[in-house]
Design brief:
Blueprint: E1 11-17, E2 22-34, E3 40-53, H1 58-73, E4 82-86, H2 92-109, E5 113-116, H3 118-126, E6 133-138, E7 144-149, E8 155-162, H4 164-171, E9 177-180, H5 182-189, H6 193-197, E10 203-206, H7 213-219, E11 263-264, H8 269-289, E12 302-303, H9 305-318, E13 333-338, H10 345-358, H11 367-375, E14 379-386, E15 389-399, E16 406-414, H12 423-431, H13 433-438, E17 442-447, H14 451-459, E18 463-472, E19 477-484, H15 489-495, E20 521-528, E21 533-542, H16 548-551, E22 556-566, H17 568-571, H18 579-604, E23 613-619, H19 623-640, E24 644-648, H20 649-655, E25 670-675, E26 680-685, E27 693-697, H21 703-714, H22 720-728, H23 755-770, E28 779-780, H24 781-807, E29 811-815, H25 822-835, E30 838-840, H26 851-863, E31 885-886
Parallel strand pairs: 1-4, 4-5, 6-9, 9-10, 11-28, 16-17, 20-23, 23-24, 25-29, 29-30
Antiparallel strand pairs: 1-2, 2-3, 6-7, 7-8, 12-13, 13-14, 14-15, 15-16, 17-19, 18-19, 20-21, 21-22, 24-31, 25-26, 26-27
Helix pairs in contact: 1-2, 2-18, 2-19, 3-7, 9-12, 10-11, 18-19, 20-26, 21-22, 21-23, 22-24, 24-25
Enzyme class: transferase
Subcellular location: Cytoplasm
Family: Belongs to the KAE1 / TsaD family.
């Protein structure tokens, strides 16, 4: 492998893209041939692929296509060595399906996943023979995405989004090669006048462009890192993929109302202060977000202006550097991977110049020395650029085999004009990316007396271990040796295996995953993403009761793992869940949540343990949010080669009952009251996992939504449930006679309405203020909260008990996020006791959305012989309660 000109071992790569109207996947062998002066040439061989135009079929087609390609090539998931995914730009919902699938598939089998710019990959797919290609794709809303890239898929300019007139103004009337997606081609056909004339000089090479599997592989080829002596090896970046969003979510922040003087907020002082502080922090973050919209993990250069500001402040606070003026706003700051085939001659010359300026007394490296450093496949270099010009660099070398790695930092250097701005941290953060997953101790030498550098390294966990006399020549200066221990491996030993789902990589996918025989027990994983919580849970279902069918007893279901990540704070200033923000948050949180769940599972079972089945919420819920969870769940199931089950979210809330001692007994003719921010329903239940019947639901606001709106109008923040509940416990429930909706004889017996209650609270406050009921006469906020909460709990429990009476049910199940409310629990307990009805409420951690409830429902369905769901299933945001599981 080390011989120049030799062909290196090919790498098998799974490629995925859903950024266009096409569903693209393929298995591609990537070959890299070393040429002269350390340059490389890449070639690809496609083993199998599936490419189908279906603008709304990404969710249904992608994983089945991957499975078909594997079967066609005679391969299994464990044979894949890396995953390359188009990270956009593209329509958000479809884009996230591909990214969630690729990230989960790679995570499951323990291989790296790389994001590439989808427009660059398109250029690599269609622009052979053209040094430069403009790619235009449809961004909807009468806008186009644009980027210029080489035929090898290297980004030159962009990506950007804009109106056609603006794109034509920038790129029109130029004799350039242009690749158009079908949607843009149709739009250009309709142009007239000057706009049409602007396209006449274009050399249009295709009017149906999309990233092919080969183009995706070529666009990601630079990121596939071969290491000498090991056949080949990939840099295993641990960052989750981040989509290239060039537009912000369409979420309008409601106009903030001043807190009324008619309410005394003394009891809520801490809550009010916390809400005001959170809003201020989010507005600050919003300002920073504007400049970071094109930032994407693993896709070319990273926007780093916001991070630079943070790093500068951190360095100044630590005393490592003196703060300096920020870069001009138009000086784009980027940190990127630097390889020999990416480095221009000007880059090498600038590196040599900076080296000479910084280390003139220490035998500075020459241009040829840097060329050799970048050509060494064991070295990993990154570059800092300001307005496109190289202004700093850093390099680290991997010593020893990948199975037992050690690292040595070779250099970290910034041009003098860039020093003191926190930029060294940007270089270090990028330099340490391989360590986040591969692990290994790190060594370095630093000149004695260079206090800023020593302080920087200490902040990254290094400690001085010794001194080397006269190390630097010809100056004769001493070097301090510094060491950073392996921060990854000890945690693996403590937590049982590799980080997250990668721990299953060494286990043959055909081997049963459960620690005991599958006939006795099995592990079922559940994934939840219907709203603003990303949940991963695992249950163990014991099937030791041989007479289960005869006795009718339920299987023993035991909770093992419950990991939940919430995007609640991101929605706070909007006063409610914003669907697009929730979807983005799920994509970012899925892999970290899964890895935390797998670490917890391995603690309780064994290293290499993996689930025997994967279940997911398929509906009801927010459409975009559901797609992220479903795409990830399909990929984990396919990669682990285990059955997949698509189940009902509401059925999951009922199924947590199976985790209790009472859940061992058959559940017959029960009533479920499910109360959350999105649902308020009374359901008739005839067994966990059985079709349910909806008796009643809210006609407008859900109960949890009413809490949020009342909290917002009082200025108490979001979510409203916890803060109102806490204040209500201090207040007088009878202070204000708020109306009880839908309780008249002529109203529906089981339906709810809470919009009128919210309006009543607002009108009460307005009237009190108009009447001058302020100051000492202001009503305590705790009384407002207690009176509002009493009205909600009264209606909920009254109608639920009415349903029990009408149906003869002797069990009331209380579930959903609002079931954590103390007054609802207390009033339900009192009324159930008086009515002779057994009340069952899940533990507090299982009240809100979580993966455990999904796993519990799937376990029950499996125990009753339910067949796995087809991978071609789509999500159903309006799934009816009568459907516990979708099969196809």
């Amino acid at each position: 492998m080390s011989a120049r000109g030799s062909t290196l071992t090919p790498m098998l790569v799974l490629t995925i893209d859903t950024a266009t109207s096409y569903v693209v996947s393929g298995l591609v062998e990537v070959n890299r041939r070393a040429g002269s002066w350390g340059t490389f040439e890449y070639s690809t061989t496609t083993l199998s692929q599936r490419v189908q135009r279906n603008p709304r079929g990404h969710m249904e087609l992608l994983v089945p296509h991957i499975q078909e390609s594997l079967a066609e090539a005679g391969l299994r998931p464990k044979d894949i060595e890396a995953v390359v995914v188009g990270a956009g730009p593209g329509p958000f919902t479809g884009l996230r399906v591909g990214m969630a699938t690729g990230a989960a598939f790679a995570d499951a089998i323990g291989v790296p996943v790389f994001g590439v710019d989808s427009l660059s990959a398109t250029a690599a797919s269609v622009a052979a023979g053209h040094q430069e290609c403009l790619v235009l794709s449809d961004a909807r809303r009468r806008e186009w995405y644009s980027a210029t890239a080489t035929e090898a898929g290297r980004l030159i300019a962009g990506p950007a989004v804009g109106k056609p007139v603006d794109v034509l103004a920038e790129h029109g009337s130029k004799p350039i090669a242009v690749a158009l997606t079908a949607e843009v081609a149709r739009a250009i056909e309709k142009l007239e006048g000057e706009e049409k004339a602007a396209t006449e000089d274009w050399r249009i090479i295709t009017e149906d462009a999309y990233p092919t599997p080969e183009g995706l592989a070529l666009a990601g080829a630079d990121q596939l890192w071969w290491l000498e002596g090991e056949g080949h090896f990939v840099e295993r970046l641990g960052r989750p993929l981040v989509a290239q969003y060039l537009r912000r979510p369409d979420a309008a922040e409601p106009k903030r109302k001043e807190r009324t003087a008619a309410v005394n907020f003394a009891a809520a002082a801490e809550d009010v202060a916390a809400f005001d502080r959170l809003e201020a922090e989010q507005r600050t973050a919003e300002a920073a977000l504007e400049g970071a919209m094109t930032e994407a993990a693993g896709v070319g250069a990273e926007s780093a202006n916001a991070e630079a500001a943070k790093a500068e402040a951190a360095d100044a606070e630590a005393g490592n550097v003196e703060p300096a003026d920020a870069e001009p706003a138009n000086a784009e700051l980027t940190v990127e991977l630097l390889t020999l085939d990416r480095a221009s001659l000007a880059d090498l010359e600038e590196m040599a110049r900076i080296e000479q300026e910084l280390f003139s007394e220490e035998s500075p490296w020459s241009l040829e020395a840097f060329r050799a450093e970048l050509a060494n496949p064991r070295n990993y270099y990154v570059a800092l650029r300001v307005a496109g010009q190289l202004q700093g660099y850093a390099g680290i070398a991997l010593n020893g085999p990948p199975a037992d790695p050690e690292w040595e930092i070779h250099t970290v250097a910034l041009s003098p004009e860039q020093q003191g701005k926190g930029h060294s941290r940007l270089l270090m953060d990028k330099l340490f990316e391989p360590l986040q997953v591969i692990g290994g101790p790190v060594y370095l030498e630093v000149r004695d007396g260079n206090a800023p550098a020593v302080g920087l390294y200490e902040s990254y966990g290094f400690a001085v271990t010794g001194r080397r006399k006269g190390y630097y020549q010809p100056s004769g200066a001493d070097a301090l040796t510094m060491f950073r221990p392996d921060e990854k491996r000890p945690s693996q030993a403590d937590e049982g295996g590799q980080d997250g789902a990668e721990g299953i990589a060494e286990q043959d996918a055909a081997t049963p995953g459960s620690a005991t025989d599958a006939a006795e027990s099995m592990l079922v994983m559940g994934i939840e993403s219907s709203c603003d919580e990303t949940g991963v849970g695992v249950v163990r279902m014991s099937k030791t009761d041989g007479d289960q069918e005869e006795t009718g007893s339920a299987p023993v279901v035991e909770e093992l793992v419950n990991q939940v990540a919430s995007s609640m704070e991101q929605h706070a200033r909007f006063g409610g869940v914003v669907p697009e923000i929730a979807s983005r948050a799920h994509l970012e949180a899925m892999q970290p949540t899964m890895r935390a769940a797998m670490r917890s599972l391995q603690k309780q079972t064994r290293i290499g343990q993996r689930p025997d089945a994967v279940a997911v919420t398929i509906g009801p819920g927010l459409a975009g949010a559901l797609m992220v969870g479903a795409a990830a769940a399909k990929a984990y199931a396919a990669a682990w080669e285990v059955p997949f089950y698509a189940v009902n979210h509401l059925g999951g809330h009922v199924a947590v009952e199976a985790l209790t001692e009472e859940g061992r007994e058959p559940l017959k003719n029960a009533i479920a009251l499910l109360v959350s921010g999105g649902h308020t329903q009374i359901l008739q239940v005839d067994g966990v996992g059985k079709p349910m019947t909806e008796l009643g639901s809210t006609l407008d606001d859900a109960a949890g939504e009413a809490y949020d709106k009342v909290s917002r109008l009082l200025g108490l923040g979001y979510p409203g449930g916890p803060v109102i509940d806490r204040l209500a416990r201090q207040g007088n429930r009878k202070a204000i006679a708020f109306p009880r909706g839908m309780m008249r004889p002529q109203d529906s017996r089981y339906d709810f309405s809470f919009s009128g209650l919210k309006t009543a609270v607002a009108r009460f406050v307005e009237r009190a203020e108009a009447a001058g009921q302020v100051g000492e006469n202001a009503i305590p906020v705790e009384d407002v909260c207690a009176s509002f909460q009493e009205a909600v709990a009264d209606v909920l429990t009254a109608k639920a008990l009415r349903a029990c009476e009408d149906t003869g049910a002797k069990v009331l199940l209380l579930g959903g996020g609002v079931s954590a409310n103390s007054r609802l629990r207390g009033l339900a307990a009192d009324r159930c006791r008086d009515a002779g009805v057994e009340l069952r409420i899940p533990p507090l951690p299982l009240c809100t959305d979580n993966g455990v409830m999904i796993a519990a429902l799937a376990a029950q369905l499996i125990s009753e012989g339910a067949q796995p769901t087809a991978m071609s299933v789509g999500t159903d945001p309006a799934l009816e309660v009568e459907v516990p599981i979708l099969t196809d």
